[in-house]
Amino acid sequence: MTVLAVVGPTTAGKSGLAIELARALDGEVVNADSMQLYRGMDIGTAKVTWAERRGVPHHLLDVWPVTRTANAAEYQALARAALDDVAARGRVPILAGGSGLYIRAGLEDLNFPRTDGGIRSRLEAELAEVGAPALHSRLATLDPAAAAAILPSNGRRIVRALEVIELTGQPFTATMPDYTKSRPAIQIGLTLPRPELDRRIAARVEHMWASGFEAEVRKLVADGLRDGKTASRALGYQQMLRYLDGEWSLDQAREETVKATKRFARRQESWFRRDPRITWLDASHEDLLTRALARIRDGRFRT
What we know:
The structure is a single chain. The longest helix is centred in the C-terminal third of the chain and has 24 residues, at 250-273. α5 crosses α8 (155-168) and α11 (237-244) runs antiparallel to α12. The mean pLDDT is 92. Helix content is 51%, strand content 10%. Strands 3-2-4-1-5-6 form a 6-stranded parallel sheet, sandwiched between helices. The protein has 303 residues and is of the alpha/beta class. The chain starts with a strand and ends in a 5-residue tail after the last helix. It is built from 13 helices and 6 strands. The protein folds into 2 domains: 3-110 and 177-298, P-loop containing nucleotide triphosphate hydrolases (Rossmann fold, 3-Layer(aba) Sandwich), CATH 3.40.50; 117-175, Orthogonal Bundle (Histone, subunit A), CATH 1.10.20.140. It is globular, with a radius of gyration of 19 Å.
């Protein structure tokens, strides 16, 4: 089984290209955006609507409640099962998303280190006391590569990286296999000039605010969003929660969402650029689908 993967930074057009490829190649899409697994997180994650899917089956959308803590090992099992199921029915599995660890989990045999309740509790208590930036500084000293891939505000992932370092005595990134150990895959990376990427991010956030994002977050709060260690920290959602708590104005929450999303997009690019198996295409070209199909069919991808 050969899997197609469409990767890259947020707003680059991954979902749209994945749907076009699925329609052209008789495929189905398997989601690899960690926040789109959550039910009800639609506007803030730019989750494709039923109409936008244009009849293409999508898998691993709306899987978890917002109270559930994300688990890459569990995602790996779900993604492998979905990819195998699509292939078993004679269709092309297309893994699409911008969560780098989830892409690798879908394509590779990652062995996730165990957790330790005592270490985790101690680090979480420290996180609550000193804040995520302080722990991120420690991580940057212990494992610069991991720190570069994790937002300084993402306390959950910082705690996990520090936990793995303490458990294994190795850098968090050392638990990842090299890029040669994966199932057969063709990976398409979408790239954009930085000014265009920034423009698209700002436009997306404006669209979120105009499309009822505040109402979406208020509903999710009623569903337990504040109790979700992962979902409550999602881009846009954590900023809107600070508005609802009276810490920020609505305009400030929007501006901070734009800034945080731009930083996140740069980290996504940094993560994916390290993978030599990805072949990059300019997402701004009008003939993007034609270019992608031509390269798939003539085998000029690194696999």
